[in-house]
Amino acid sequence: MSDFLKKYEVVSDGGDVVVRSLDHFDPDLVFDCGQCFRFAKKDGVWQGVARGRLLRLTREGDDLRIFDMDTAEFESSWLDYLGLTLDYDIVRESFDAADSHLSDAADVGQGIRILGQEPWEALISFIISQNNNIPRIRSLVERLCVRCGKKFSANGEDFFAFPTPDEMATLDESDFAEMGMGYRAAYLVDATRGVREGRLLFDELYDMPTDRVIDRLKCVKGVGTKVASCVALFGLGKYDAFPIDVWVKRILAKYYPDRADIDFGPYAGIAQQYLFYFERYIEGK
DNA sequence: TGCCAGGCCGAAA
DNA sequence: TTTCGGCATGGC
Q1: Using the 8-state DSSP alphabet, how is residue A5 labeled?
Q2: Would the N or C end of chain A have less CB density within 10 A of its end CB?
Q3: Which bases of chain C come closer than 7 Å to a protein CB?
């Protein structure tokens, strides 16, 4: 375990886990910056379904409280999910060194961390995201989970896990279209087929260089550079995944007209997320 | 009522 | 290789 993990402390507290002195984690930004679509704030507590479980958490001053969890479970899977295995002091230093505009964006988005989502969920979510707005993406993802995800109860309510490929395969294109997926219905069918038939194996992608990962993901119909980059970043932890051909035309052309070849380095994907959030923030969301 | 949204596909130049 | 129209749908 490297030194930076000693920057915070994980303790048990009345059936909850409390992460003491945690920097660079603002739930309002983490869960509302457009990287995930299944979390909502309720009575000051962020809650959502992830990895088949209800996750509830809130900030308490310098600490982060995760409800109804023991430290063993937290350390084995949620440390990684919440992005706490990466030192954001180092990320931030690299941004400050790279560029002043990015540094400004990082000021605004201070507290964003990249979650470690399931690649399958990221793939489906970001196929749905194309040419769609965030409230509608949330609504469509939820509709999909209610339709074919496993139902479970937690904290006195019913929730639905994100459907597995097999569960998605019980639906056809017309079912997805009925849900309001539009022309993405065919893409969802192909993604499901691709994973079930082994054309796309996520396990092979973790140790692969990011550019090859993106090429592989593009074997699914409806997955281009942008969607593939989001899956690589949010679902496979490829922090350098940067959707260059899309953002060169949008964000880069907008903020870096004379520097189309700017290199954001090993955390380019995180830089991209700060810039995405910054654009939403300065344009009033 | 229009415009637009975490884009991609396929055709045309 | 780059450019561009079309695409389903519903937030705003």
Answers
A1: G
A2: N
A3: 7-12
